[in-house]
Amino acid sequence: MDWLIPAVGLLGAGLLAGFAGGVFGIGGGFVVVPALLLMLPLLGGDHAQYAHVAIGTSAATIIVTSIRSVMSHNKRGAVDFEILKSWAPWIVLGDGVGVLLASHVDGKMLTMIFATGVLLMSLHFLLPRIGDKSLTDQMPSGVLRMGIAGGLGTFSSLLGIGGGTIAIMVMTLCGRPIHRAVGTASGVGTLIAIPSAIGFAIIGLREHGLPWGSLGFVNLPATAAIASMSILTAPLGVAAAHSLPPSVLKRVFGVYLIVIAVVMFRNALKV
Asked: What is the pLDDT of residues 152-162, one digit of tens each?
């Protein structure tokens, strides 16, 4: 019966991650990483490895969640594939950089970076003067696009998230409607998650003290449990997102980020 608590916890995290991914255009990493940090000790292994395994496993689950979300958003005409195509090469390149950096950063530092980034991002959605402001009606191009997309890939792969939050901020600042930004951000998660999951699996292959069922820094049982549930609830989240007024959707997301930041700061003290 030792498997019952982690199984229930991970299945529940999958349900919530799928719904959150659909609502907010994220891969669900903001839900999955904290849940994994709580559940991984029940699967054994060295405490010092949990943050890296949580992030690598989160990336693997995002592959499923983000693909399911982008399919549902696309049915509503809310995905801008031209943005995804132009950002893809730089996101993937940034992914590689992030995975390499992750192998040299300890678990506590990763968790603190995660929490700080989430807290700062919440301001964009909670403060009307910031969240409702549009700087331009043109998406970044050239060197600026390369820097933003590359940085997005690096930051997201370091934290095990789909990068939707940053992508949504950029798109809304460039005059894109929040619902279209959310739909397109779902696709960003796929671009980030695939190379990230592969990278974390590879760099963790020679590590010792990993939890049971891990392939490098990707825990396969946890991935299967979370992904199997997220694929069910992602379409429900998409439907909920498109039923909310833009201003409400932004504020709800901002509150959600603050809650997650507090949880992650608490976890950082325990890593």
From this structure: 888 777 776 76
